[in-house]
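Protein 1 of 2
SEQ + STRUCT:
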Amino acid sequence: MAREQAALMPNYRRQPVLFTRGQGASLYTAEGRRYVDCMAGISMINVGHCHPDVVEAICSQAERLINVSNLYYTEPMLELAEWIRDHSMGGRVFFCNSGAEASEAALKLARKHGGPRRPEVIALEHGFHGRTYGALTLTGQPDKQAAFVPLVPDIHHVGRDDLEALEDAVGPRTCAIFVEVVQGESGVYPVSKEMLTLARELADRHGALLVVDEIQTGLSRTGPLFAYQDVGIEPDVMCLAKSLGGGVPIGAITARPGIDATFVPGDHGSTFAGSPLACAAGLASCHVLADPALQAAVRAKGERLLAGLTRLVDDGLAVEARGRGLMCGIDLPEPRAAEATAAMLEAGYLINNTSAHTLRFLPPLVVDDEDLAGLLVGLRSVLAA
């Protein structure tokens, strides 16, 4: 901690533990103590720590070619782009390095597609799309924005499930509607099917783009490969990152055919994006996460986890439990979420508090039932203390 204070800017509130090794849903300190990871790097390590397929892909690719920029072709970049295209909306892909970069790319694409007479973007309150300027403006959380105003103009927010406000906000000047299927950073709040369906209808009615942010929900986190597939809508543009690289930094947007021709050379780019190393890791990760057996297991485990969290509500230890697949959250009756996170760390479980009242759970998708049961037992003990 002293070394951090002397060497790093104070951007993060790190938990007081240093990890040296990981495997599956387990993390280990130098002394060999095991912790159960129930955060997966904020849904980044869906395949689990050091999945052998991802490790082998990284090592094999690193021996041949790490990066060469986007001035040239590389096979892993093409293979991962084809995989995303073939498993989503059938359109082409732009690679970047993170979720925030994906949001920025989608915002630029939407603005260019809409043209100067359609500058307005509608997003949802309590959403989260990143911390760079465009992404931060899309993020409907004033406490995160206050220190950085003025933000990007013509981006407006409506309530998470306020159908009337959404209908009033979208019009002929709207180029895009940005939504998450489940809002993760504000505490795991699923957006209603009615709201998402209306967003699709309004985008169609007014010629706007529906942009679905799957940065946290994507790649089987909620059960299906992409969360929008459970809702019965299809986006015009989708943002991906986090678990796409199996732990290696990568982001992407994909757009449906026709929309995917909006960018031309010079419109947008990134030096490191689509590197052979990141794309090789990403392809290996995607092959693991697309397994129907894994997706069925995610649904079953998620139902058991949510049922266990709901029992905490029934027993008065929490006031609400929410979730989809292995993406769950609970609200506590008192502002002691940070205290509970620290106590669970002491007990050997990594969880996360998104606010003073809210705990979030995002375990690697390979977590086993024994560890989930242990999480629930430990959580009950901490909350009852």
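Protein 2 of 2
SEQ + STRUCT:
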Amino acid sequence: MSKTSYLAKNTLLIAISRVSTQMVMFFMLPLYTTTLTPGEYGTVDLIITYGALFAPLIMLNVQQGIFRHLIDARTDSQMQRKVITNALEIVIGTSLLAALVFLAVSYFVDIPLIASIVFYFFSFIVGDLVVQIARGLGKTKEFAITGITQGLLTAVLSLVFMLPLEMGMNGMLLGMAIGMLLPAIILAAYIGVYRSIKVSARDSTIKKELLAFSLPLMPNTISWWVFNASDRTIISLVLGVAANGIYAVTNKFANIANSFSSIFYMSWSESAVLAINDADRDKFFSSVANMMLKTFSTLGILIMCATPVIFPLMVNESFSEALLYLPVLILGTVFNTVVSFYSAIYVAKKLTKQVANTSIIAALINLVVIFALIWFIGIWAAAISTAVAYGAMAVYRHYDMKKYMEITYEHGLLLKLGLLFTVVTLLYYMNNAGATILSLVIAVGAGYWLNRKEMGKIKQVVLGRITK
């Protein structure tokens, strides 16, 4: 199987998992926005955002080290046992320490929803560890099935907890936590993680290797928090949790594009590792870069143009202000996809310090911009600061990557995409039916024209499969 075909296959499997999960969660918006007030929804959104920050910090980012090292050990069962055993030992130790600290803090500070928060964090950690082990071992199909199951189970449990049981915020958190945890435990049993846990496999050298890879990624995780949690924290403190609820709904629509970006990153990070030392590496990486930029730019634009049609059907009218900030967040999502593309290459080359350095710079830019603007333009400051910071990091990483390889983009591609985004954004803010329909027509036509070669290849593959 060629490198491009392998990337396409993995991307498709991950997409089936992630898209189904994201769509389930997206279609839960009517439940969340009618059952919870903007303030309550903003509070739960903060908890979920902090979970995505603190869980990797508690694990010292070892889950990423597991994935990277297991790829190299796919044909070495002894090394697999060493990686899994020593990684779990590190994570169990740090998790117990974090639990003690959390309990000590809760003794002096009244933390609402404390039991649900602890359980949600625990589920997040277990789920993340198991899926990274599965990906590292090449169990992409099993990983995809688990993702679908998590999404469906979360939806069912949320409905039960929030409607007949009327558990409100607790119900939303518990539905998500149990929905993540149970399928992850089943996946761990199915792929035989327990067989790889051996006392005899404990090895201080492996622990040091895992930590040497993972610890430099800590600043990157903290920077990710600055991009996500700090924006929402600052909005909540300065403008109130109701404003954060509005911003959270905007992010739900922007995250449709972001979920596809994460799908690409998960698949690309594996392909980048496997191809990093190939003779035609630069050519292959450049072709992926061009495909990535065209695909995700047009996808983001399509989502932006379609949202005014979908929004009234999905979201309570008390959240209607959320539509204002979407174009800026979509732009930030496109920049984030470019950032992720280069991040996978850094990880493939085990240059995790470079990931940290570039992330710190972008995080500082994000903080400076939001603090400078939030007092004057409110929620706009969070959206603008995110787009500016991701854009700066994308440009920086592109030129920094030239030290290691040459990645080239098609002549005039950035100009075409910039013009397309400007036109559809102007139509978006006209806020009438005619402009919305015209923007959709332009987005669909331009998307097909820019991606016609890739779509032709997909058509050939699909027809070939059908014929076969």
